[in-house]
Amino acid sequence: MPVYIHDIATAVPPHASRQQHIREVMKQHVSTDRKSEAIIHRIYSQSGIETRHSVIEDFVDNHHGSLFFNGEAKENPGTSARNKVYEQESKKLFIEVGQKLLEGRTSFSKEDITHVITVSCTGFYAPGPDYELVKSLGLSPSTQRFHVGFMGCYGAFPAMKMAQSFCTADPDAVVLLVSAELCTLHFQFNNDIDHLLSGSVFADGAAGLLVSAQSPQKQALEFQHFASSLVPDAEKDMAWTIGDTGFNMVLSSYVPDIIQKNMQPVLEPLFQQLQLSKDDIDHWALHPGGRAILDKIEQTMELQPDQLKASRQVLSRYGNMSSATILFVLKTMMDAGLSPNQQILSMAFGPGLTIESGLLRVHQPEENK
Question: Catalytic site residues (predicted)?
Answer without folding.
Answer: 153
